[in-house]
Structure formats: C-alpha cells, structure tokens
Design goal:
heterodimer; A: alpha+beta; Heat Shock Protein 90; globular; B: alpha/beta; Transcription Regulator spoIIAA; 3 helices
Chain lengths: 149, 107
Amino acid sequence: MNNIINEMSVNFLSKSCNESFARTVVAAFVSQMDPTIDEISDIKTAVSEAVTNSIVHAYKSGIGVIYISAKMYDNGKVIIKIRDKGCGIEDVEQAMQPLFTTGGSDRSGLGFAVMQSFMDKIKVSSKVGKGTSVTLERHIICRSRANGC
Amino acid sequence: MGVNISEDFEGVVAALEGDIDHHTARDMRELIDSYVSKVAPKMLKIDFGKIQFMDSSGIGLIMGRYKLMCSLKGELKVINIPKRIEKMVKLSGLTKLGIFNYCSKTT
C-alpha cells in the first residue's frame, strides 16, 4: 500500500467564475510533485471539465457547493476528487458517451471523454437527487528526488 | 483577456486571449456573434495564438461558430493553434473539417 504524503481540500460555490480558481488551486497543489508542463496542463483541463459539469448540470437550477479534495502518494500518484450535492446523473454510462450532452448547442459533450483521455483513471459515482462524485487519478512521472518520489 | 475583433481583406478576425472555459467562453461567444451577425462576412477567422488554457468549452465555441458561419454561407478558419491545446483539438474529432491551422510545423 502506498502512503499519502500530502492532502488538501477546498470548497467553493458553483459560480462559473470559480472554474479558473478550482483548476489553479489543484495545479498549485500538484506542482509540489515537480510535474511537467504537460502533466499540469492535463490535470487542469480534467479538473476544469469536472467542475464545469457540476456548475452546468448538477446545480443547473441554482448555486450549490463544490468540494474538491486531492491526495498525493509517495509513488507519484495523485488522486483528485470533485464532488457536488446536485441533481445527480440518471444514466452515468450515457453521460460518459463522447458528444452526448444535455447542455445545448454550445456544449461539446466532450467533458468525460477529456477526463478519460487526459487522466490515467476516472471513476464516476452518482445518485439522482443526492449528487455526483468524480475521482481522477494521474501518475506524475518521477524526475527528481526533490519531490519525495 | 478577451476578444479583439478586426477586419482584413478576407473578412472578420477574432483574436482570443487568455483562458477559454465555460465562464469566459460565454463573453467571447457573445462578442463574436454580435459582430458577425451584423457584418455577415464570407470568412471568420478565430485566432487562438494567445490562448493559454482551453478546456472543452473551446471546442463548443468552435462548433457553434462553425454552424453560425454555415448558416451565413460563409467559412470558418481557426488559426495559430498553440501546441499546448493541440491535444484537445485532436480529441474533439473536428480536425476532419479542415479548418485548423497550427503554430507548430510537426502537425
């Protein structure tokens, strides 16, 4: 079993102006692991997709709280969880199909496809009326001993 | 951060700057659409050269403007795609539309 070397959590309102706050705060945390520009950019993109889903879909009829937690492990793995207490997803498998969207003509329907291809692993669990939780996992390649890997 | 709209001999050029996410895409879309629907150009070029970050909202932005230009019987080109957002563009499958122009020589 791998040991947690650091963790953080942050909560914020589901306002769209917090999308950049959310990905930036996760990037700042992960940067302790000395990631490459590409690794940071992939993680920022995946977090942005998950948070946008919570804002656009989960809390579509109002404002709620979005919870992010992140853990880093001594083997270079980082696990980020983005959770909301919104409306939930009726059919997770359908929601994860590329191009499927309920969000109108300017939504690409690529959110989950991006999370899947930019991260190593993704897990989605959702209960209608209770909320959704997206867990993203990414291995940061160890390039120096400085980050404790 | 934002949109800088100008005109050249081919039509309208919208140069985008900063990050594109669901929050910023809304203003970008409104600015581009209001200008384009007034001018009804034959060509709309969206310049991504100064984009630092883009999530899939940027793809939505391109798809929407593509449809808009089709409805105006005009053409859309997306120019100066930086290396850092090529991955997103490729994932979207939009590359087969042939409207993209990249910064890097490798693609």
